[in-house]
Amino acid sequence: MDTRWHGLELTARLEQTFPADELKAEFDTVIEHYAPQDQFGHYHHGGWTGVALHAIDGNPLDDQDDLQDSNVVLSKTPALKHAPLMEQIIDSLPCEKRRVRLLRLEPGREGILALRFMAHRRFTAATAAHPDRHR
Asked: I need a surface site. Which of 62, 71, 83, 130 has the fewest CB within 10 A?
């Protein structure tokens, strides 16, 4: 898959490795405590739901994409209480944290990734769901 856009490399490999089973367990716990909200956008055909880990006013059910307002307060959400390893990983990234979410894609759906480079950068992982998966 081509990961370049107008000559810019769009991927980065993290040097650390992380325990997948522990991250999956944290994901399941967060999803269990917070009903994922539909995520809307022009870059996909639906099928995305999510829970915010870092969002406007620390609201885990935030689905706002307009972060241009300079008065917006972005902070960690209570969902991170159920995901200490994820919180540690997020905190270790040497960058400003804007909107950080756990996203779930329905089985058999595809996300169409259209990156926007405006006032903030977007980092997205996972753009397709296997049709045989149920979660």
From this structure: 71
| Segment 85-106, tens digit of pLDDT | 999 988 988 888 878 888 777 7
C-alpha distance across the termini of the chain, in Å: 24
Rounded distance between C-alpha atoms, residue 27 and residue 83, angstroms: 7
Query: Which residues share a beta bridge with 101?
Result: 52
**Neighbour-count burial for 108-133, b at 16+ CB within 10 Å, e otherwise:** eeebeeeeeeeeeeeeeeeeebeeee
Q: Indicate the domain borders of the chain.
A: 19-135
Q: Report the alpha-carbon distance of residue 31 to residue 38 in Å, rounded.
A: 13
Strand-pairing partners, residue 78, are: none
* DSSP type of residue 69: -
In this predicted structure, what is the pLDDT of residue 63?
A: 66
- 56 forms beta bridges with 74
**pTM of the predicted model over 0.90:** no
DSSP conformational letter for 107: T
- What is the longest distance spanned by two Cα atoms in the chain? 43
What residues pair up with 76 in beta bridges, in sequence order? 54
